[in-house]
Amino acid sequence: MTGGAWCRVLCVDDNRDVAESLVMLLTLVGFDARACFDGASALAEAATFCPHAGVLDLNMPGMNGYELARRLREQLGPRLFLMAVTAVGDPDTDRRVVEAGFNLKLTKPADPNQLLAVLTRFQQALSV
């Protein structure tokens, strides 16, 4: 399974190890990935990086993933593919994920193979 360097992914998690590990994994399979550790820096990075996809932690201090998703949609438009990653799996979280404009929610710890499969399908859809 390989990505395309032209497919840019923004990984946002206040846990630096999680965000940086995800960037390393995505880079190894060919995606152009960058890590941010809070909502404000993610918005600034998105303005120049122009990601095709975002993998966002929901429970971050300051700007949470729900607000970040809404603001990224405003900034980059509806074609941005957004994945929520959270340890919470209750119906209220599911509802809020949809309302915030996420395309998909994965529960932590997210299966790397599942995450790669989803991003690879998305990347392939971009090339059609």
Walk me through the structure.
It is built from five helices and five strands; from the N terminus they run E-H-E-H-E-H-E-H-E-H. Helix 2 runs parallel beside helix 3 (65-76). Helices cover 48% and strands 20% of the residues. It has a five-stranded parallel sheet, sandwiched between helices. The model has no long low-confidence stretch (mean pLDDT 91). The protein has 128 residues and is an alpha/beta fold.
> How many beta-strand elements?
5
Ranges where pLDDT stays below 50 over 5 or more residues in a row are none
Give the integer mean of the pLDDT values: 91
Radius of gyration, in Å, reads 13 Å
The string of secondary-structure elements, in order, is: EHEHEHEHEH
**Proportion of residues in extended strands:** 15-25%
Main beta-sheet strand count, sense and barrel state: 5 strands, parallel
Task: Note the main attributes of this structure.
five-stranded parallel beta sheet; 48% helix; alpha/beta; 128 residues
